[in-house]
């Protein structure tokens, strides 16, 4: 689902209100007025306009206009309003009651919040849960704007009965104001929500490269990006369909949680919301130390967030159904053993908005820990480090070492250096394991031989013997292409098409080698189908990505 935003493929262009009482420019106000507050003496109408041109050609399944209704004069069925497609050009700074554009056939909608007897209740850290949010289905208009030249896009008009004060309403405009109790949140600004290319799994990827945006909002900045996987060839033209940053625009107002060092995220995955409800984005950023559980698809505010500090140490994060969050650190020393790397366990209460704590309730060592994954089939937690894959039992908010498997060594006996563990969607017995050594699948059950060395790639036969041949699996589709990779940062398959995507670091063919970039950055995401050759895709050669993951809200 794409949402309006200055960084996204749907853009807010302009909005304002007009009145029969004056010819002033109202385009910078934080409210849009509709109807009459004085039984017809003063009348108001509001206009808004969005750019949907980048959706041209896309199959649009649903489009809604989301607004925040901050005031109605009466809390009953009289709070009716009409929504109309505008049929002529207009300009937010010069439009007046006298020169207002014509409109086409509209549709009615009802609003009943905002009056003192039925107050709207804005939620600062979870604005999508505010009861002032209203949605209007305009699928037919957006489809036509994007794909039908005979129905040009000049925007939308709001108007209501103009002879009775019972119809008067206020809405938040496109200009959030920090002092306003509800319209401080950009989420409450007029927004188009458009579902398109449904059935095609999105891709999530952090991008250190922050391009310059129109009007310099907020400035060039790293972002977590959402990419449409339907046709990656269009990425250079379309860009990501949505971007997210833990900033005030996205209702993350607590500046102690992150800073200018936020670099797009080193770990990001969708999950069932568990005790939070709905679905969530779980993300951690190694550069800034930010970890957050973000409402999805709203991507506004947060259910849970902390900052763990230690730049470049945090590599992986996971949220369990009870709200516990577990983080993997590659360098931090836990305990007295002097081992660098391990897991830290944070309770649901520790990330409470406005009262967070980054002191873990438990810490356990695992050399070079890089990623962590919850397994609902056994209520266990898996983690991968430099040399080991470990299963931890999870009971009462704590981890207990359960079982471990050595990662097969690289040629010459060097460590594998594990970096990634993700589900093999479609086979709940298996995980993808990505490492400096390469890519392999792991069978939890070890029920049958699944290893052969016919491709001559990692893992090599001298390091996979005996029982290991039932756990380290190479019998998956198109291994000839998938296995030809080393220095892996991310790997995973799409449950819809079974395509595999991966990213790699220094030494692999798609390494970012531009001056001033990091050795672990890449501009490219590699796509590998179930047969045939691979392809690589990038939105911009300046992109600096670490991981790319499929946006699948499931543990397995």
List keywords for this structure.
556 residues; mainly beta; 5-stranded antiparallel β-sheet; Methylamine Dehydrogenase, Chain H
Describe the model:
The chain is mainly β. Among the domains are: 2-196, no CATH class; 272-406, YVTN repeat-like/Quinoprotein amine dehydrogenase (Methylamine Dehydrogenase, Chain H). It has helices at residues 139-147, 235-238, 479-482; strands spanning 2-3, 11-19, 31-34, 44-51, 60-72, 80-85, 107-110, 133-137, 156-159, 169-172, 191-196, 203-207, 223-227, 242-244, 267-272, 279-284, 290-296, 304-307, 314-319, 325-333, 340-346, 362-365, 371-375, 380-384, 388-395, 398-406, 418-423, 430-435, 439-443, 472-473, 488-493, 500-504, 525-528, 534-537, 545-550. Strands 1, 3, 5, 8, 10 and 11 form a six-stranded antiparallel β-sheet that branches. A five-stranded antiparallel β-sheet has the order 2-4-9-6-7, with no helix packed on it. A four-stranded antiparallel β-sheet has the order 14-13-12-35, with no helix packed on it. Strand 33 and strand 34 form a beta hairpin. The longest helix is centred in the N-terminal third of the chain and has 9 residues, at 139-147. The chain is elongated and about 85 Å long. It starts with a strand and ends in a 6-residue tail after the last strand. The mean pLDDT is 93. It holds the Pfam family CBM96. InterPro entries: CBM96. It comes from Streptomyces indiaensis. Its main location: secreted. Keywords: Secreted, Signal.
